[in-house]
């Protein structure tokens, strides 16, 4: 007899009492299954963040620890930076006279020494200036010789006139003395004596007159010649100054008078040591004084320029220590200090320039001359504060996950057990950080092998989740 209230499965009637027994059995199984996760969760809570390694895992992970403790910590301001030439060591080489380029001795990127020739320029104007100088120089020399010869001539003439007139006076004096003796002896009358005395006085007066006239003539002539010499020397000096303006020195100007000198050729020379970073010159080109033909940078020192926002300016000042790292030199850190903090804030970026001057010396790993090249990009960390932190660790010890950070600490009584501990980190510099909270001094913090520990901890968590 079929019961109309009995359930049917696949066309078969299942008695009600059998179905009830099945439901009770299923209900009992579910209750046991619910009890097991609760026990597992209680077990996990007591071992949360703990990782156990066997000997093989411990060796493969290369675990290294350091004892947590105090240390010097630097607070830095991190800025983007670039390398630039030292603007105080840049020179523009411009010709001081127009002309035609005859030869070029230095090219772009070449090193130069002070005084080395850069190019030869042929200049008609230079030839004219040198000719004017040589003419003025010759005129001055001629005027000087004329004055010297005139002085010698008048000296000899004066000596001759003096000798003649002194002879006439001597004769007149002898006659006068003879007449005086005759007159005193009463042999002659006084008239011949008076005539002889008068002749003597005339001879003396004649000498004075002749010498005075000759001296006046000499002085007038020598004065005229001295004026001419002074004018010639002024012209010579002016002509020489026009050559000094072109960059010639005294020795070079003196060489213009030598035979075979090309008066229209000027050699453009480097005013300082450096590297040619710009060149605007070609052969047979007409050049003038308006444009620099060479730009030479002395790269023995360079500037590292960074931009600091105005909100950070109160934390910066010249003399602060800084660390420079460049993209072109990975792994290299250069220590310097702030030299100048710009007084002007950009209206568009609201930032001011920070300058760090560095000596451009060879660097390990790239031992070339002048490795710091203008245009290189990088970063700079400026030390704005330095203090002793309660616990200072290498930054590699910190594991970041989401919004938090943690470290692995070796368990005190278990060499192969490590516990993950959340920490509060304050950023430092040079690969060091300060731990504000989370661990105590003396704990053994893992600094090598943290990635392995993190992976094992994650695998263990996932494994536990799947096993139950």
Notes on the protein architecture:
Helix 3 (about 125-185) packs antiparallel against helix 4 (about 190-245). This protein has helices spanning about 15-45, 55-60, 125-185, 190-245, 250-255, 450-465, and strands at about 10, 10-15, 50, 65, 70-85, 90-95, 100-105, 110, 115-120, 265-270, 275-280, 285, 295, 300-310, 320-325, 335-340, 350-360, 375-390, 390-395, 400, 405-410, 415-425, 430-435, 445-450. It is built from six helices and 24 strands. Strands 3, 19, 20, 21, 22 and 23 form a six-stranded antiparallel β-sheet that branches. A six-stranded antiparallel barrel has the order 5-14-17-16-15-18. It is of the alpha+beta class. The protein is rod-shaped. The chain folds into four domains: about 50-70 and about 390-465, conserved putative lor/sdh protein from methanococcus maripaludis s2 fold (Beta Barrel); about 75-85 and about 300-385, Elongation Factor Tu (Ef-tu), domain 3, CATH 2.40.30.170; about 95-115 and about 270-295, Beta Barrel (OB fold (Dihydrolipoamide Acetyltransferase, E2P)); about 125-245.
């Amino acid at each position: 007899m079929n019961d109309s209230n009995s359930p049917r499965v696949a066309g078969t009637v299942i008695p009600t009492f059998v179905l009830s027994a099945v439901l009770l059995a299923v209900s009992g199984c579910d209750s046991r299954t619910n009890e097991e996760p609760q026990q597992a969760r209680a077990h996990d809570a007591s071992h949360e963040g703990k990782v156990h390694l066997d000997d093989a895992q411990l060796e493969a992970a290369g675990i290294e620890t350091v004892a947590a403790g105090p240390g010097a910590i630097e607070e830095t301001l991190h800025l983007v930076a670039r390398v630039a030439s030292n603007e105080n060591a840049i020179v523009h080489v411009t010709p001081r006279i127009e002309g035609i380029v005859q030869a070029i001795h230095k090219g772009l990127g070449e090193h130069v020494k002070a005084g080395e020739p850069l190019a030869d320029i042929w200049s008609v104007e230079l030839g004219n200036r040198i000719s004017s100088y040589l003419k003025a120089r010759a005129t001055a020399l001629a005027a000087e010789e004329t004055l010297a010869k005139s002085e010698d001539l008048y000296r000899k003439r004066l000596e001759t006139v003096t000798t003649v007139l002194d002879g006439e006076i001597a004769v007149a004096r002898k006659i006068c003395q003879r007449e005086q003796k005759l007159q005193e002896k009463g042999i002659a009358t006084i008239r011949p004596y008076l005539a002889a005395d008068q002749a003597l006085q005339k001879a003396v007066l004649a000498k004075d007159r002749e010498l005075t006239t000759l001296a006046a003539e000499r002085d007038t002539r020598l004065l005229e010649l001295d004026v001419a010499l002074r004018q010639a020397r002024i012209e010579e000096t002016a002509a020489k100054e026009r050559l000094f303006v072109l960059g010639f020195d005294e020795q070079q100007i003196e060489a213009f008078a030598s035979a075979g000198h090309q008066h229209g050729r000027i050699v453009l020379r480097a005013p300082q040591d450096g590297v040619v970073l710009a060149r605007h010159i070609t052969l047979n080109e007409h050049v003038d004084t308006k444009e620099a033909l060479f730009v030479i940078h002395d790269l023995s020192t360079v500037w590292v320029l960074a931009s600091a926002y105005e909100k950070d300016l109160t934390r910066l000042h010249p003399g602060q220590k800084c660390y420079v790292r460049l993209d072109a030199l990975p792994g290299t850190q250069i220590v310097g200090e702030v030299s100048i903090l710009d007084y002007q804030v950009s209206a568009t970026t609201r930032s001011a320039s920070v300058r760090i001057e560095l000596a451009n010396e060879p660097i390990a790993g790239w031992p070339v001359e002048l490795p710091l090249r203008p245009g290189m990009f990088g970063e700079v960390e400026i030390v704005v504060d330095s203090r002793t932190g309660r616990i200072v660790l290498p930054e590699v010890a910190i594991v970041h996950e989401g919004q938090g950070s943690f470290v692995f600490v070796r368990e005190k009584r278990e060499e192969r057990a490590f516990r993950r501990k959340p920490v509060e980190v304050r950023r430092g510099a040079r690969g060091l950080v300060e731990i504000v909270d989370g661990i105590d001094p003396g704990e053994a913090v893992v600094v090598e092998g943290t990635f392995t520990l993190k992976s094992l901890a994650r695998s263990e968590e996932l494994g536990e989740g799947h096993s139950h």
